[in-house]
């Protein structure tokens, strides 16, 4: 009997902060990946700001563009986690660039004629020190759905601090209980859905 292929997750962290500086978006993404690992899912993280992802809406924008390499890792993954801070009430500009590059998938199909992102699960993690997580996740989920991803129940986890305060997620002494529970539920549902889609893919 052939062993089942390992379920894999890719976290694209869309902080504006380059490595190696600490990032709340990166930290929450790693918390999600920890919970996915508890579900038997192998994960990896890419901090997109560290990569030369050129602007555009094509699969490959030419010399120096790192997106094709990131895309190949995405094609190998079953679950995408898009992690972003809230800036001025919106996802970061890096998150928007990722969505714009994913727009190319609208014209990409697999061997059976399905969009390449069909049968892949999309989840979202949002951090900020003002309200707006629901609006940001709604923006991201609409775009991810457009290009073919499937969104699980409870597919977002987030943390926002009080209005007018400067505390970041990475500055907390401990993860708030409700955030931890939400992150755990996201991971459980995403892993379950990824396995369902692997065994029962969408029809061509």
TrEMBL record:
Lineage: Bacteria, Bacillati, Actinomycetota, Actinomycetes, Pseudonocardiales
Pfam families membership: FMN_red (PF03358)
Top-level taxon in the UniProt lineage: Bacteria
Stored InterPro entries: Flavoprotein-like_sf, FMN_Rdtase-like_dom
UniProt GO MF annotations: oxidoreductase activity
Residue intervals of the NADPH-dependent FMN reductase-like domain: 19-160
Protein name per Swiss-Prot or TrEMBL: Multimeric flavodoxin WrbA
């Amino acid at each position: 009997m052939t062993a089942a292929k390992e379920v894999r997750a890719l976290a694209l962290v869309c902080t504006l902060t380059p490595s190696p500086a600490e990032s709340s978006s990166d930290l929450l993404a790693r918390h999600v990946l920890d919970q996915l690992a508890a579900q038997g899912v192998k994960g990896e993280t890419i901090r997109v700001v560290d990569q030369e992802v050129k602007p555009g809406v094509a699969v490959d924008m030419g010399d120096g563009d790192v997106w094709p390499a990131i895309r190949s890792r995405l094609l190998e993954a079953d679950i995408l986690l898009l992690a972003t801070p809230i800036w001025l009430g919106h996802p970061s500009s890096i998150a928007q660039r990722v969505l714009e590059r994913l727009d190319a998938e609208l014209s990409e199909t697999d061997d059976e004629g399905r969009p390449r992102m069909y049968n892949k699960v999309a989840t979202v993690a949002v951090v900020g020190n003002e309200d707006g997580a629901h609006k940001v996740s709604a923006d991201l989920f609409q775009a991810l759905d457009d290009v073919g991803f499937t969104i699980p129940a409870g597919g977002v986890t987030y943390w926002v601090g009080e209005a007018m305060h400067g505390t970041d997620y990475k500055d907390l002494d401990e993860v708030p209980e409700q955030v931890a529970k939400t992150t755990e539920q996201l991971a459980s549902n995403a892993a379950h859905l990824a396995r369902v889609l692997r065994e029962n893919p969408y029809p061509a």
